[in-house]
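Thread title: Can someone regenerate the structure for this chain?

I was given the following input by a collaborator and told the matching structure tokens would be attached. They weren't. Posting the sequence so someone can regenerate them.
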Amino acid sequence: MRIFLFLYLVLISIPQASAANCELDVACEVNNRSYHARVPDDWDGKTPLPVLLHFHGWGRQGKMVMNHKRIAGATRKMGVLLLAPNGNGRSWSFWKSGSRDVPFTDAVIEDAAKRWPIDRSRIFVSGFSYGGAMAWRYACENGKNINTVLAMAGTLRDENEHCKHPVNLRHTHGTRDTVMDYPYGNNGELEGAVTLWRNRNKCSTAPNSKIMWKPKRGKKFSRLIWSNCKSGKSVVLDVHQGGHLIPNGWIEKQLQELL
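Best answer:
Regenerated them for you:
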């Protein structure tokens, strides 16, 4: 009896494993699929966390996102929980409505909320390339609870998509992109890249303002801003002259401005 009592006291004296025991390389399982997660540096373990859910590019998986300097490097510094779902077949179903990846993404967010305290008012959905298009698809079908979409080099090309809710959008694309070509408008205008969301958010045709900006390291951006849309949501388009890439410093700047 004393032995059992001793073992019990030893066990309760050992710190219990966190519910979030699937961080970084160890994937979190949900609905027969999985995702990866990374908490920010210096988190106190209690404060609710803003979330950046990032869809990886074609042929990748969420594990790669966990150590990506331009993605995880930004969230670690900015105090944001990073979630990176794993696509079936290393890709995403975004071409048509009714994507199986939309309810999966919902499940990822709900599962993460059980493991970490999250700030539901600051859920940002991001993606690169096919992942950028998937971010648009998710926002189009279930964007009600998204704070902002941060998409890079990937869009839904059909301007007539019926998106359920207006959303705040920040999109960047390179004019020399030859993988997912820059989506110019019918007359070659840069604004064509975000026509879908300009229309859904009931924005003006022309942007309200244009500025130039450049991170400490990286490419210069021409920023077009639609800030007085009738829906109350905004559209920001950052155009650079590079190719198919995640621009250096872009995610960090967006999080700085949004947080």
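The beta strands are 28-30, 33-38, 49-55, 81-85, 118-128, 148-152, 168-174, 209-213, 221-226, 235-240.
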